[in-house]
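Pipeline run #58 for the internal structure catalog. This entry was flagged by the ingest filter as a single-chain record with no existing model, so it goes straight to prediction. Upstream metadata was stripped on purpose; only the residue string is passed forward. Reviewer on rotation: M.T. Logging verbosity set to normal.
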Amino acid sequence: MSVRNLIKTSLNASGLYSVRRWIAGPKSRRLIILMYHDFTPEVDALPINRLMTGQPTAHDFEAHLQVITNHWRPMLLADAVAELDATGTLAEDTVAVTIDDGYSSVATIAAPLLTKYNVPATVFLITDWIDGNCELWWLDLARLMMNRDWSTTRPAELARILPVDLVDRIPPYRNGDRWQRVTFGIIDEFLRDLPDETIARILNRLDNVLPQPESAISRDVCSEPLSWEQIRALPDLISLAPHTACHSNLSWLPPESGMETINASRERIRQQTGRVDPGFAYPYGNDVDGYRTYGSHLAKNDYQYAVVGRPGPSFPETDRFLLGRTTLSATTHHALIERELSLNLLKSCR
Protein backbone atom coordinates (compact mmCIF):
# COMPACT_ATOMS: atom_id res chain seq x y z
CA MET A 1 0.00 0.00 0.00
CA SER A 2 1.31 3.49 -0.83
CA VAL A 3 2.10 5.98 1.93
CA ARG A 4 -0.78 8.18 0.75
CA ASN A 5 -3.27 5.32 0.95
CA LEU A 6 -1.87 4.31 4.34
CA ILE A 7 -2.56 7.81 5.67
CA LYS A 8 -6.09 7.76 4.21
CA THR A 9 -6.74 4.37 5.77
CA SER A 10 -5.45 5.55 9.16
CA LEU A 11 -7.68 8.63 9.11
CA ASN A 12 -10.69 6.50 8.29
CA ALA A 13 -9.84 3.95 10.99
CA SER A 14 -9.53 6.78 13.53
CA GLY A 15 -13.24 7.46 13.11
CA LEU A 16 -12.64 11.06 11.96
CA TYR A 17 -15.07 10.89 9.06
CA SER A 18 -17.75 9.16 11.13
CA VAL A 19 -17.43 11.84 13.82
CA ARG A 20 -17.76 14.58 11.22
CA ARG A 21 -20.90 12.91 9.86
CA TRP A 22 -22.32 12.68 13.41
CA ILE A 23 -21.54 16.34 14.14
CA ALA A 24 -23.26 17.39 10.92
CA GLY A 25 -26.44 15.86 12.33
CA PRO A 26 -29.63 14.54 10.73
CA LYS A 27 -30.25 17.72 8.76
CA SER A 28 -27.12 16.92 6.74
CA ARG A 29 -28.36 13.55 5.51
CA ARG A 30 -27.67 13.49 1.84
CA LEU A 31 -27.96 11.35 -1.24
CA ILE A 32 -24.78 10.13 -2.93
CA ILE A 33 -25.37 8.95 -6.49
CA LEU A 34 -22.68 6.61 -7.82
CA MET A 35 -21.91 6.37 -11.53
CA TYR A 36 -20.58 3.26 -13.30
CA HIS A 37 -20.21 2.31 -16.95
CA ASP A 38 -18.50 -0.91 -18.00
CA PHE A 39 -17.00 -3.54 -15.70
CA THR A 40 -13.72 -5.35 -16.34
CA PRO A 41 -13.67 -9.17 -16.16
CA GLU A 42 -11.21 -10.68 -13.72
CA VAL A 43 -9.87 -12.89 -16.52
CA ASP A 44 -9.96 -12.65 -20.31
CA ALA A 45 -10.34 -8.87 -20.26
CA LEU A 46 -10.93 -7.28 -23.66
CA PRO A 47 -8.30 -4.94 -25.15
CA ILE A 48 -10.57 -1.93 -24.55
CA ASN A 49 -10.46 -2.66 -20.82
CA ARG A 50 -6.77 -1.75 -21.00
CA LEU A 51 -7.58 1.57 -22.66
CA MET A 52 -10.48 2.69 -20.43
CA THR A 53 -8.87 3.50 -17.09
CA GLY A 54 -10.78 3.29 -13.84
CA GLN A 55 -13.19 0.51 -14.79
CA PRO A 56 -13.90 -1.60 -11.71
CA THR A 57 -13.45 -5.35 -11.75
CA ALA A 58 -16.02 -7.70 -10.27
CA HIS A 59 -13.96 -7.80 -7.05
CA ASP A 60 -13.83 -3.98 -6.94
CA PHE A 61 -17.58 -3.67 -7.45
CA GLU A 62 -18.30 -6.29 -4.82
CA ALA A 63 -16.15 -4.39 -2.32
CA HIS A 64 -18.08 -1.20 -3.16
CA LEU A 65 -21.37 -2.96 -2.48
CA GLN A 66 -20.09 -4.45 0.76
CA VAL A 67 -19.15 -1.01 2.08
CA ILE A 68 -22.43 0.50 0.92
CA THR A 69 -24.55 -2.15 2.62
CA ASN A 70 -22.47 -2.01 5.82
CA HIS A 71 -22.46 1.77 6.31
CA TRP A 72 -25.16 3.37 4.16
CA ARG A 73 -28.70 2.81 3.01
CA PRO A 74 -28.77 1.60 -0.61
CA MET A 75 -31.85 2.85 -2.42
CA LEU A 76 -33.19 3.05 -5.95
CA LEU A 77 -32.54 6.56 -7.23
CA ALA A 78 -36.18 7.15 -8.22
CA ASP A 79 -37.28 6.13 -4.70
CA ALA A 80 -34.71 8.42 -3.07
CA VAL A 81 -35.88 11.36 -5.18
CA ALA A 82 -39.49 10.55 -4.28
CA GLU A 83 -38.56 10.52 -0.56
CA LEU A 84 -36.85 13.89 -0.89
CA ASP A 85 -39.91 15.29 -2.65
CA ALA A 86 -42.33 13.89 -0.09
CA THR A 87 -40.50 14.68 3.16
CA GLY A 88 -37.88 17.29 2.27
CA THR A 89 -35.14 15.09 3.72
CA LEU A 90 -33.82 11.53 3.88
CA ALA A 91 -34.32 9.11 6.76
CA GLU A 92 -30.69 8.01 6.49
CA ASP A 93 -27.53 8.76 4.53
CA THR A 94 -28.38 7.13 1.21
CA VAL A 95 -26.43 5.77 -1.75
CA ALA A 96 -27.99 5.18 -5.18
CA VAL A 97 -26.17 3.11 -7.81
CA THR A 98 -26.44 4.07 -11.48
CA ILE A 99 -24.87 2.40 -14.53
CA ASP A 100 -24.66 4.13 -17.91
CA ASP A 101 -24.81 2.93 -21.52
CA GLY A 102 -25.89 -0.70 -21.21
CA TYR A 103 -22.75 -2.79 -21.61
CA SER A 104 -23.19 -6.56 -21.45
CA SER A 105 -21.16 -6.60 -18.23
CA VAL A 106 -24.31 -5.29 -16.50
CA ALA A 107 -25.78 -8.77 -16.96
CA THR A 108 -22.61 -10.82 -16.50
CA ILE A 109 -20.91 -8.94 -13.65
CA ALA A 110 -23.08 -6.24 -12.05
CA ALA A 111 -26.51 -7.90 -11.85
CA PRO A 112 -25.38 -11.03 -9.95
CA LEU A 113 -23.57 -8.89 -7.38
CA LEU A 114 -26.43 -6.42 -7.02
CA THR A 115 -28.73 -9.39 -6.40
CA LYS A 116 -26.30 -10.97 -3.92
CA TYR A 117 -26.21 -7.81 -1.79
CA ASN A 118 -29.80 -6.74 -2.52
CA VAL A 119 -28.68 -3.34 -3.81
CA PRO A 120 -31.01 -1.69 -6.34
CA ALA A 121 -29.59 0.13 -9.36
CA THR A 122 -30.71 2.21 -12.32
CA VAL A 123 -29.30 1.35 -15.75
CA PHE A 124 -29.46 4.12 -18.36
CA LEU A 125 -29.67 2.53 -21.81
CA ILE A 126 -28.49 3.72 -25.24
CA THR A 127 -31.27 2.04 -27.18
CA ASP A 128 -30.09 2.43 -30.80
CA TRP A 129 -26.76 0.88 -29.81
CA ILE A 130 -28.58 -2.05 -28.26
CA ASP A 131 -30.66 -2.36 -31.45
CA GLY A 132 -27.51 -2.36 -33.59
CA ASN A 133 -28.49 0.88 -35.32
CA CYS A 134 -25.51 2.95 -34.19
CA GLU A 135 -22.00 2.51 -32.84
CA LEU A 136 -20.43 4.44 -30.00
CA TRP A 137 -17.65 6.65 -31.28
CA TRP A 138 -15.23 5.87 -28.42
CA LEU A 139 -15.47 2.20 -29.35
CA ASP A 140 -14.63 3.13 -32.95
CA LEU A 141 -11.65 5.09 -31.62
CA ALA A 142 -10.61 2.07 -29.55
CA ARG A 143 -10.69 -0.12 -32.65
CA LEU A 144 -8.50 2.41 -34.48
CA MET A 145 -6.06 2.33 -31.57
CA MET A 146 -5.93 -1.47 -31.54
CA ASN A 147 -6.30 -2.39 -35.18
CA ARG A 148 -4.20 0.19 -37.02
CA ASP A 149 -0.48 0.79 -37.38
CA TRP A 150 0.27 4.09 -35.65
CA SER A 151 4.05 3.56 -35.77
CA THR A 152 4.43 4.77 -39.38
CA THR A 153 2.00 7.69 -39.14
CA ARG A 154 3.82 11.02 -38.95
CA PRO A 155 2.64 13.81 -36.63
CA ALA A 156 2.21 16.07 -39.67
CA GLU A 157 -0.42 13.67 -41.04
CA LEU A 158 -2.32 13.67 -37.76
CA ALA A 159 -2.09 17.47 -37.60
CA ARG A 160 -4.19 17.67 -40.76
CA ILE A 161 -6.99 16.01 -38.83
CA LEU A 162 -6.47 16.98 -35.19
CA PRO A 163 -5.40 20.33 -33.65
CA VAL A 164 -1.65 20.83 -33.68
CA ASP A 165 -1.48 21.45 -29.92
CA LEU A 166 -3.28 18.16 -29.34
CA VAL A 167 -0.93 16.26 -31.66
CA ASP A 168 2.00 17.79 -29.76
CA ARG A 169 0.65 16.20 -26.57
CA ILE A 170 0.73 12.71 -28.07
CA PRO A 171 3.98 11.04 -26.96
CA PRO A 172 6.36 9.46 -29.50
CA TYR A 173 5.10 6.06 -30.53
CA ARG A 174 5.99 3.20 -28.24
CA ASN A 175 4.68 -0.30 -28.72
CA GLY A 176 2.64 -1.28 -25.70
CA ASP A 177 -0.45 -0.66 -23.61
CA ARG A 178 0.76 2.53 -21.94
CA TRP A 179 1.24 4.47 -25.20
CA GLN A 180 -2.16 3.32 -26.47
CA ARG A 181 -3.83 4.25 -23.18
CA VAL A 182 -2.28 7.74 -23.06
CA THR A 183 -2.99 8.49 -26.71
CA PHE A 184 -6.54 7.17 -26.50
CA GLY A 185 -7.16 9.38 -23.45
CA ILE A 186 -5.85 12.51 -25.18
CA ILE A 187 -7.97 12.05 -28.30
CA ASP A 188 -11.03 10.88 -26.36
CA GLU A 189 -10.94 13.96 -24.12
CA PHE A 190 -10.82 16.22 -27.19
CA LEU A 191 -13.60 14.51 -29.13
CA ARG A 192 -16.20 14.31 -26.36
CA ASP A 193 -16.78 18.10 -26.45
CA LEU A 194 -17.51 18.18 -30.19
CA PRO A 195 -20.78 17.81 -32.13
CA ASP A 196 -21.59 14.24 -33.13
CA GLU A 197 -21.15 14.99 -36.85
CA THR A 198 -17.67 16.45 -36.28
CA ILE A 199 -16.59 13.40 -34.27
CA ALA A 200 -17.75 11.08 -37.05
CA ARG A 201 -15.88 13.13 -39.66
CA ILE A 202 -12.61 13.09 -37.66
CA LEU A 203 -12.78 9.35 -37.04
CA ASN A 204 -13.49 8.73 -40.72
CA ARG A 205 -10.41 10.74 -41.68
CA LEU A 206 -8.27 8.85 -39.15
CA ASP A 207 -9.63 5.62 -40.58
CA ASN A 208 -8.45 6.69 -44.04
CA VAL A 209 -4.99 7.84 -42.91
CA LEU A 210 -3.93 5.11 -40.48
CA PRO A 211 -2.56 2.07 -42.37
CA GLN A 212 -3.65 -1.49 -41.78
CA PRO A 213 -1.02 -3.57 -39.95
CA GLU A 214 0.79 -6.30 -41.82
CA SER A 215 -0.63 -8.94 -39.53
CA ALA A 216 -4.36 -9.08 -38.97
CA ILE A 217 -5.65 -8.11 -35.53
CA SER A 218 -9.00 -9.27 -34.26
CA ARG A 219 -11.76 -6.67 -34.28
CA ASP A 220 -13.15 -8.25 -31.14
CA VAL A 221 -11.54 -5.59 -28.96
CA CYS A 222 -14.56 -3.81 -27.52
CA SER A 223 -17.35 -4.50 -25.07
CA GLU A 224 -20.71 -5.46 -26.51
CA PRO A 225 -24.08 -3.99 -25.57
CA LEU A 226 -26.71 -5.86 -23.66
CA SER A 227 -29.28 -7.66 -25.77
CA TRP A 228 -32.97 -7.05 -25.15
CA GLU A 229 -33.22 -10.65 -24.03
CA GLN A 230 -30.57 -9.98 -21.36
CA ILE A 231 -32.30 -6.76 -20.36
CA ARG A 232 -35.66 -8.46 -19.91
CA ALA A 233 -33.95 -11.09 -17.73
CA LEU A 234 -32.45 -8.51 -15.36
CA PRO A 235 -33.82 -8.71 -11.80
CA ASP A 236 -36.57 -6.31 -10.73
CA LEU A 237 -34.20 -4.44 -8.41
CA ILE A 238 -32.57 -3.05 -11.57
CA SER A 239 -34.56 -0.18 -13.03
CA LEU A 240 -34.28 0.78 -16.72
CA ALA A 241 -34.10 4.38 -17.93
CA PRO A 242 -33.20 6.29 -21.14
CA HIS A 243 -29.75 7.63 -22.03
CA THR A 244 -30.88 8.89 -25.49
CA ALA A 245 -31.09 6.70 -28.58
CA CYS A 246 -27.41 7.03 -29.60
CA HIS A 247 -25.61 8.98 -26.87
CA SER A 248 -26.29 12.33 -28.53
CA ASN A 249 -24.36 15.35 -27.27
CA LEU A 250 -27.28 17.47 -26.07
CA SER A 251 -25.04 20.53 -25.71
CA TRP A 252 -25.27 20.90 -29.49
CA LEU A 253 -29.00 20.22 -29.83
CA PRO A 254 -31.95 22.52 -29.07
CA PRO A 255 -34.14 21.06 -26.33
CA GLU A 256 -36.93 20.23 -28.77
CA SER A 257 -34.60 18.02 -30.83
CA GLY A 258 -32.94 16.61 -27.73
CA MET A 259 -36.29 15.56 -26.30
CA GLU A 260 -37.02 13.58 -29.46
CA THR A 261 -34.04 11.26 -28.90
CA ILE A 262 -34.65 11.10 -25.13
CA ASN A 263 -38.30 10.14 -25.59
CA ALA A 264 -37.46 7.70 -28.39
CA SER A 265 -35.10 5.91 -26.01
CA ARG A 266 -37.74 5.80 -23.28
CA GLU A 267 -40.40 4.44 -25.61
CA ARG A 268 -38.08 1.77 -26.96
CA ILE A 269 -37.37 0.57 -23.40
CA ARG A 270 -41.07 0.49 -22.60
CA GLN A 271 -41.84 -1.34 -25.85
CA GLN A 272 -39.19 -4.00 -25.22
CA THR A 273 -39.59 -4.50 -21.46
CA GLY A 274 -42.97 -3.13 -20.40
CA ARG A 275 -41.34 -1.01 -17.69
CA VAL A 276 -39.33 2.20 -17.57
CA ASP A 277 -37.87 4.35 -14.80
CA PRO A 278 -38.98 8.02 -14.56
CA GLY A 279 -35.40 9.29 -14.79
CA PHE A 280 -32.86 10.22 -17.45
CA ALA A 281 -29.06 10.52 -17.67
CA TYR A 282 -27.45 13.19 -19.86
CA PRO A 283 -24.85 11.71 -22.22
CA TYR A 284 -21.36 12.98 -21.28
CA GLY A 285 -23.03 14.88 -18.45
CA ASN A 286 -20.49 17.71 -18.18
CA ASP A 287 -22.39 20.72 -19.55
CA VAL A 288 -24.37 21.45 -16.40
CA ASP A 289 -25.17 25.04 -17.38
CA GLY A 290 -26.29 23.97 -20.83
CA TYR A 291 -28.59 21.28 -19.44
CA ARG A 292 -30.59 23.84 -17.43
CA THR A 293 -32.71 24.49 -20.51
CA TYR A 294 -33.88 20.85 -20.44
CA GLY A 295 -35.48 20.88 -16.99
CA SER A 296 -38.88 22.24 -17.99
CA HIS A 297 -39.01 20.02 -21.08
CA LEU A 298 -38.22 16.90 -19.07
CA ALA A 299 -40.85 17.78 -16.45
CA LYS A 300 -43.43 18.41 -19.18
CA ASN A 301 -42.70 14.93 -20.55
CA ASP A 302 -43.25 13.30 -17.14
CA TYR A 303 -39.62 12.73 -16.15
CA GLN A 304 -39.06 13.07 -12.42
CA TYR A 305 -35.29 13.55 -12.34
CA ALA A 306 -32.13 13.66 -14.45
CA VAL A 307 -28.49 13.04 -13.57
CA VAL A 308 -25.33 14.67 -14.85
CA GLY A 309 -21.80 13.27 -14.97
CA ARG A 310 -20.20 15.60 -12.45
CA PRO A 311 -20.12 15.41 -8.66
CA GLY A 312 -22.63 17.63 -6.94
CA PRO A 313 -24.77 17.95 -3.84
CA SER A 314 -28.21 16.43 -3.48
CA PHE A 315 -29.93 18.80 -1.11
CA PRO A 316 -33.72 18.76 -0.87
CA GLU A 317 -33.72 21.98 -2.90
CA THR A 318 -31.28 20.73 -5.55
CA ASP A 319 -32.66 20.92 -9.09
CA ARG A 320 -34.08 17.44 -9.69
CA PHE A 321 -32.93 17.63 -13.32
CA LEU A 322 -29.31 18.38 -12.43
CA LEU A 323 -28.46 15.74 -9.83
CA GLY A 324 -24.71 15.18 -9.50
CA ARG A 325 -22.96 11.82 -9.51
CA THR A 326 -19.61 10.59 -8.34
CA THR A 327 -17.28 7.72 -9.26
CA LEU A 328 -15.52 5.51 -6.72
CA SER A 329 -11.96 4.34 -7.20
CA ALA A 330 -11.47 0.89 -8.65
CA THR A 331 -10.22 -0.71 -5.45
CA THR A 332 -11.13 -3.53 -3.08
CA HIS A 333 -9.82 -1.67 -0.02
CA HIS A 334 -12.84 -1.10 2.24
CA ALA A 335 -11.33 1.75 4.24
CA LEU A 336 -10.52 3.73 1.10
CA ILE A 337 -14.00 3.17 -0.32
CA GLU A 338 -15.63 4.23 2.94
CA ARG A 339 -13.44 7.32 3.06
CA GLU A 340 -14.42 8.35 -0.48
CA LEU A 341 -18.11 7.92 0.30
CA SER A 342 -17.82 9.86 3.57
CA LEU A 343 -15.94 12.71 1.94
CA ASN A 344 -18.46 12.92 -0.88
CA LEU A 345 -21.27 13.15 1.65
CA LEU A 346 -19.47 15.75 3.75
CA LYS A 347 -18.71 17.89 0.71
CA SER A 348 -22.44 18.19 0.13
CA CYS A 349 -23.07 19.43 3.69
CA ARG A 350 -23.39 23.18 4.07
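catalog note: The chain has a mean pLDDT of 88.
catalog note: The chain has two domains: 3-132+225-347, 137-209.
status: ready for reviewer M.T.
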